[in-house]
Amino acid sequence: MTVPSGRRERKKAATRQKISDTALRLFLERGYDTVGIRDVAAEADVAVTTLFSHFASKEALVFERDEDFEQRLTQAVTGRAPHEPLIPALRREIRSLVRHCTADSAAPIWRMIDESPALRKYEESMRLRHAESLATAIAADPGLSPTTTASRTIARFVIDAHSLAREAADPDAALDEIFRMIEAAWEVTGPSGPA
Amino acid sequence: MTVPSGRRERKKAATRQKISDTALRLFLERGYDTVGIRDVAAEADVAVTTLFSHFASKEALVFERDEDFEQRLTQAVTGRAPHEPLIPALRREIRSLVRHCTADSAAPIWRMIDESPALRKYEESMRLRHAESLATAIAADPGLSPTTTASRTIARFVIDAHSLAREAADPDAALDEIFRMIEAAWEVTGPSGPA
DNA sequence: GACCGTAGCACTAACGGTTAGCTTTTTGAA
DNA sequence: TTCAAAAAGCTAACCGTTAGTGCTACGGTC
């Protein structure tokens, strides 16, 4: 009972990591579509069912680290300095996230994602989830009093900003431009403006 | 060659319609997930391969009519009265589209969509396509001179407006609120404002 | 009216992601 | 040592989707 301390957790994490590493390597070597789940499982030396007990789908193998994304966004809202305005805090976080995924080391992965319809679809559905988490965080902020609609709308806009900036020729410039628009949209939601 | 006039077209359209009607009926009767492609094909009295020659995927059976959506949006931009500002024209069109899919007759279909992850995913990827068409239409407007980023951003925001308003408790009120935000975002994209 | 190209449809068989059902091994604790 | 549960395994399937192949009906042409 209680906490399954020690070895068990480590072994499980190791198995998960091995599967993830193997999958990403094979996908990049041979292409996402040409590598099958059975290939990944064989190369990682696990059963197919084991693979699916660690990852909900083939696409999830590629987006392994996306819980980070969601957490960092909500953290940027709930954990910002007292009296710091909402939008600049979000802008800073989004900028950091965009830089992270436009870095050279991440480029091959994102090229692979952009080329696979299945992966793009999956990313889209992730964005909806992220937007809803962010909306909840914004709505719960004690310093603000946005309507439900306003918080959900701003959350969507912010997620859009990430997606659009990531694809832009000049991500930093695009981000500035988009956040100017978001700032304007945010300001009309309350006569008192951001806290 | 030329146009395969007459009977052939009618027969093809009839087959397509029969498949679509049968599918929607079965989905609503028994649930999207519990009805298989083979069930639909059998009930419509066609082969599975025939079904897939008319519809690209199972989800496409549900969203049969959504070529309209894309066309109506771009039409709202390219076909609006001379000197009519962009955002109000879009707002009018989105309002009409939202009303159409919150109507009582469409309610069961949208409930089904909201309950099926596969259908939600599909809808999400459709939204991306719609946003890109709309962005292209906005960018091509002779009366405006938005940057690429601005037109893509506004397009996303408008698509978001549809999706958010559709789910809101009071769609009309939500739409007003969101479009106030979009209007503000649009105004900061050019010092001269909309044409 | 006979002829031919092609569009539409059918059928079988498979592929690839995913899951259910059940057994075996490993691990932590009594 | 013993036991319960977690983790991993195997088999066999389900389901959406596609390839390959052939048949039939239609439309245009001589």
Automatic annotation (TrEMBL), chains A, B:
<dbReference type="InterPro" id="IPR050109">
    <property type="entry name" value="HTH-type_TetR-like_transc_reg"/>
</dbReference>
<keyword id="KW-0238">DNA-binding</keyword>
<feature type="domain" description="HTH tetR-type">
    <location>
        <begin position="13"/>
        <end position="73"/>
    </location>
</feature>
<keyword id="KW-0804">Transcription</keyword>
<keyword id="KW-0805">Transcription regulation</keyword>
<feature type="DNA-binding region" description="H-T-H motif">
    <location>
        <begin position="36"/>
        <end position="55"/>
    </location>
</feature>
<dbReference type="InterPro" id="IPR009057">
    <property type="entry name" value="Homeodomain-like_sf"/>
</dbReference>
<protein>
    <submittedName>
        <fullName>TetR/AcrR family transcriptional regulator</fullName>
    </submittedName>
</protein>
<dbReference type="Pfam" id="PF00440">
    <property type="entry name" value="TetR_N"/>
</dbReference>
<dbReference type="InterPro" id="IPR001647">
    <property type="entry name" value="HTH_TetR"/>
</dbReference>
